[in-house]
Amino acid sequence: MSETTVVHLMRHGEVHNPAGVLYGRLPGYRLSEAGEGMARTAAAWFADRDVTHLVASPLERAQQTARPIADTLGLEIATDERLIEAGNSFEGKTFGVGDGAMRHPGNWWRLRNPWTPSWGEPYREIAARMLGAIDTARDAARGHAAVCVSHQLPVWTVRLHLEGRRYLHDPRRRECGLASVTSLTYDGDRLVRLEYAEPAGATDPDAVPGA
């Protein structure tokens, strides 16, 4: 007989980032006060969802987001490097769609190939490592549910892969808000349903950028 297992991919909460830089994998970026509230709200949302396994990216903001879930459910937080934020050569800089960065000659070489992308970790590699982390979490929670706390681009990239969509996309159109949950339901090892929820509410369009 097959088993139903759910793997919840959660994006971390809002980060304190007053300079508005792309912080990526840089150390020292913690949740803001609002982000801590998002994590607590999400923890309550998971309370009755039969979660037996909790794992997070090694970055501080993901570990912080996982902490209220661990406390609420009485679980330990495992760490999986495969859930980490995507590598990006623009880390530490202000860079975003519409801010003029794409017109700066110094950035043109890094922006030469949006399909890979040339400015950071290839989408295919992001998807592959996320799939590995998902498989491990699914195996650890067989017949129950797992929560994997990660970051926006890794969660969105693996969703594009699972839905058979191309990786190239407009970052402004990602359905992956702060503290959002993308839930993957498996019948045995077969994905049968993908759902999206925002336990902490929709992300403000003016939210602090970063990752």
UniProtKB/TrEMBL annotation:
Do you know which InterPro entries this protein is assigned to? His_Pase_superF_clade-1, His_PPase_superfam, PGM_Phosphatase
Classification via SMART domains: PGAM (SM00855)
Its domain of life? Bacteria
Q: Which GO terms describe its cellular component?
A: cytoplasm
Any one GO molecular-function label of the UniProt entry: phosphatase activity
Check the record and name the PANTHER family matching this protein: BROAD-SPECIFICITY PHOSPHATASE YOR283W-RELATED, PHOSPHOGLYCERATE MUTASE
This chain's protein is named Phosphoglycerate mutase
